[in-house]
Amino acid sequence: MNAETLKGHLELLLMSALQRGPAHGYAIATLLRERSDATFDVPEGTLYPALHRLEDAGLVTSRWDEASGRRRRVYQLTAKGRRVLAQRETEWRQFARAVFSVVGGVA
Amino acid sequence: MTSERIDRYLETLRRALKAHGVIDDRFVAEARAHLADDVDARVARGEAPDEAALEAVERFGPPDAVADAWAATQHVVLGRIVGAVSLLTMVAALFLCASVLVLRPPHAEVWFPVAVNTFICVAQGLLTLCLIGIIGRASTSLLLQIVVTFTSLVMSSEASRIAVAALHSAHFEGYAVVMAAMMFAQGLLTIAFVTLRIKQRSERHSTLG
Fold first, then answer.
1. What are the chain B neighbours of A88 within 8 Å (beta carbons)?
2. Is the pLDDT of residue A1 over 90?
3. N or C: less crowded end of chain B, CB within 10 Å?
């Protein structure tokens, strides 16, 4: 998928990836690629600015974690992040249903 | 060879970030861990280490594209201008204060207001440099933004007062007019910078729901 198309949905996808629990950037990138069957295949380095934006907005927090001798920054949804994610998910489902009805109807 | 390739990539990324006005060691540390995890996962799947490193850096993205994505989230150019003006104003204020204290001009009573204004300039300048990230990591603290905005307002109004007094003074004090202009510019630029940051933050909130 074109990176521009994904851009508007990236934050929702990142928050959804964190819904299962705290994760570091590599794990989030892997999860996005695998669960989308490689449809969401953007340069992984560009996920980090989006993660930092979510942190600036108070929707995720992060901390350094050391495991297997490697230091990684682990991201976690905040309570506010969970509320915003639930709201955005509902909106997205309504939007997707409406688009599918129109596009599916035409096809 | 594997770690050399990763090191070279990270060095290029650091340079690209710097060229875009972004100084963020935390991101480079995250990138290093990300690439090392990717290489380990690929080697575990049977790829040769060097090929794994090459694939990992390709998947992470061209350094310029990654740096662009970073720069797009920050008001880098305005931040640089505000930082440069803050440093310049601090140096000028300290120089002027030292001159007044050492030389003791005929209007000796000016030392106190000069010292007060120097303190305002230095305090406001240091807070602004913290906010931009020239000192430490760029801060997003709302309290710091409020304090910086307040000190910028104080600075701009004090600059206006100094300029008016200097222009109406019997002796034309050029240094006071120059100092007032610098303080005024710094105050307004900083307020513009903070306003843009707050606006950007609220846009993010509205975009995110």
1. 208-209
2. no
3. N
Tell me which residues of chain A have a C-beta less than 8 Å from any C-beta of chain B: 11, 24-26, 29-30, 42-46, 48-49, 52-54, 56-57, 59, 70-73, 84, 87-88, 91
DSSP bridge partners of A67: A70
Rounded Cα distance between B68 and A48, Å, is 12
Q: Are A77 and A59 in contact (CB under 8 A)?
A: yes
d(CA A65, CA A60): 16
Give me the DSSP letters along chain B: -HHHHHHHHHHHHHHHHHHTT---HHHHHHHHHHHHHHHHHHHHTT--HHHHHHHHHHHH--HHHHHHHHHTTS-HHHHHHHHHHHHHHHHHHHHHHHHHHHH--S-GGGHHHHHHHHHHHHHHHHHHHHHHTSSSSPP--HHHHHHHHHHHHHHHHHHHHHHHHHHHSSS--HHHHHHHHHHHHHHHHHHHHHHHHHHHHHHHHHHT-
Q: Do A43 and B27 touch (CB under 8 A)?
A: no
Tokens of B109: 């009573």
Give the gap in angstroms from C-alpha B161 to the nearest C-alpha of chain A.
37
Q: How far A43 CA sits from the closest chain B CA (Å)? A: 4
- Kindly indicate the confidence band of residue B124, based on its pLDDT and cuts at 50, 70 and 90: confident
Which residue has 């972004």 as its token pair? B22
Q: ipTM value of the model? A: 0.87
Measure A106 CA to nearest chain B CA, in Å.
30
pTM of the entire structure? 0.62
Rounded-to-integer distance, Cα B194 and Cα B132, Å:
9
Amino acid at B152: S
Closest to A49 (Cβ–Cβ): which among B60, B73, B209? Answer: B73
